[in-house]
Specification:
monooxygenase, oxidoreductase activity, acting on paired donors, with incorporation or reduction of molecular oxygen, reduced flavin or flavoprotein as one donor, and incorporation of one atom of oxygen, endoplasmic reticulum, Cytochrome p450
């Protein structure tokens, strides 16, 4: 090696040492953030902070594990190098989400119109003040009168659901994937709710809505990585220009939406029964910035359609999957539920229960709400601190700090729910859908940004449960454990295996 080469090599090595030393001290300084403030925190690991679990363990499981290790009302974590605060007491959750929500107006997750219009403009992730306007315009979509009409459609799709169970999982003895099955059911309902089209993925897997939703709800390594970056590391998501919805799903939403609009314009027909007309009015009514072009308004409409499809399918299918799993392992509770439904059917004189009848099934509601208690689809509620906020005498949350309400931990706190690992519907008897039990029950969030489709989702679950329980008993599937692992690629709760039970027709009650 000549002298020139030696000097170059030494220079390169020196640069590498300097860079790594600078990185080391940068992270060391950042990782003292909570220590310097006297706040307990999860010990960070290298450059990952407390995200080293990513793609090996689900975020749902991680928030549960953090809660087990930390009994305090709050503690610090690090999202890579970014300090974040986890809140896990009802009192502080109420302050963050409701009482002082003006300090926490927006979610922390990545949102950029330039690289992800549909992901940034939907009612779930859009920033204030635009969020407030969108929310007000969408609220009329979820009135009781409208939900009564949609319940009729949900009942039709629930009938298709029980027929598919008989056809595929009993007659043909095909293996069951509950998550996929219920995603198809929810997809059929949302097809009419959003676009006013009657399609059935349960009868025809080539359904256009199923083409969209199967891309949205299929958790692959790449989609899991995208969601994780979007939710927890916005800087990386921005750098990589990641998107909330996959490209195939985005293109198909655009195609269906504008196809529906074009068809209505050509035949002169309009309909207030679906989301399309509400979104067209949204485009006209929203007071957008003067410099905003027509593309912004159009993207805003499509964003609401996309997020409604994703939200209604993903959360409802997960809740139905876990509810059936629990009923299969709790035959006494299952029989009690059947007796309640059977009694109501006989009282009504109808084989299919309407909106009012479904709302009166108290034990069914208790089973659903207890499932949401034990398996909240979204493990945390994220907010970004808008202005410096004094949480208490000891804690000042600085502007820009991410704050997470640990929903899973609150739901598993023995002080509020004794023996929290047990599924006990009686905990939730006579509980109203809008009762947060003094901020100890938060599966739909709370405050101004609570889930706008909450009542829609609950009714969708009720309609499916009633018809399935009438027709079938659920028994544990051979080889399927009681506790199903959550999908490590999913930021939201999703059963890794999809979930399985054995369906037994009540007509003969023979094992199948």
């Amino acid at each position: 090696m000549d002298a020139g080469t030696s000097v170059i090599t030494q220079t390169i090595l020196l640069i590498i040492v300097v860079v790594f030393t600078a990185i080391y001290f940068f992270f060391k300084k950042n990782y003292n953030y909570w220590k310097n403030r006297g706040i307990h925190y999860e010990e960070p690991f290298l450059i990952f902070g407390n995200l080293s679990y990513v793609m090996r363990k689900s975020s749902w499981q991680m928030f549960k594990d953090w809660g087990k290790r930390n009994s305090s009302d709050y503690y610090g974590i690090f999202l890579g190098w970014k300090p974040a605060l986890i809140i896990q007491s009802p009192e502080y959750a109420k302050m963050i989400l409701v009482k002082d929500h003006h300090h926490f107006l927006d979610r922390y997750l990545y949102s950029s119109y330039d690289s992800d219009p549909l992901g940034s403009l939907n009612v779930f992730s859009v920033k204030s003040p635009l969020w407030k306007n969108i929310r007000q315009e969408l609220t009329p979509m979820f009135t009781s009168n409208r939900l009564k009409v949609l319940t009729e459609l949900m009942n039709v799709n629930a009938k298709h659901l029980v027929n598919k169970i008989q056809r595929d999982y009993i007659d043909k003895r095909e293996p069951v994937n509950l998550k996929e099955l219920f995603s198809m059911y929810a997809s059929d309902t949302v097809g009419y709710t959003v676009f006013g089209i009657h399609v059935s993925a349960l009868n025809d897997p080539s359904s256009p809505l199923w083409y969209i939703t199967k891309h949205m709800v299929k958790w692959t390594f790449s989609r899991g990585f995208e969601f994780t970056m979007i939710f927890f590391l916005p800087f990386i998501a921005r750098t990589l220009r990641l998107t909330l919805f996959s490209q195939p799903a985005t293109e198909y939403v655009q195609k269906l939406f504008w196809g529906t609009v074009k068809e209505r314009q050509s035949n002169g027909k309009t309909s207030d029964k679906d989301l399309v007309n509400h979104l067209l009015r949204l485009k006209e009514d929203l007071k957008l910035p003067a410099e905003a072009g027509s593309q912004l308004a159009e993207d805003m409409m499509l964003a609401q359609a996309a997020v409604f499809i994703f939200g209604s399918v993903e959360t409802s299918s997960t809740t139905l999957s876990y509810c059936l799993q629990e009923l299969a392992h709790h035959p006494e509770e299952q029989e009690k539920l059947y007796e309640e439904i059977d009694k109501k059917v006989k009282e009504s004189g109808n084989d299919v229960l309407n909106y009012t009848d479904l709302m009166e099934l108290k034990y069914l509601s208790a089973c659903i709400l207890e499932t949401l208690r034990k398996y909240p689809p979204v493990p945390h509620i994220d907010r970004a601190c808008h202005t410096d906020y004094q949480l208490n005498n000891d804690v000042l949350i600085e502007k820009g700090t991410p704050v997470f309400v640990n929903v899973v931990h609150i739901h598993y706190n023995e002080e509020y729910y004794p023996e929290p690992e047990k599924w006990r519907p009686e905990r939730m008897l006579n509980m109203a859908d809008n009762d947060n039990r003094d901020f100890t029950f938060l599966p739909f969030g709370e405050g101004p940004r609570f889930c706008i489709g909450k009542r829609y989702g609950l009714m969708q679950i009720r309609a499916a449960m009633v018809q399935m329980v009438q027709k079938y008993k659920f028994e544990p599937a051979v080889g399927e454990p009681y506790q199903i692992d959550s999908d490590p690629y999913s930021v939201l709760l999703s059963p890794k295996s999809g979930g399985r039970v054995t369906f037994v027709p009540r007509s003969n009650e023979k094992n199948v």
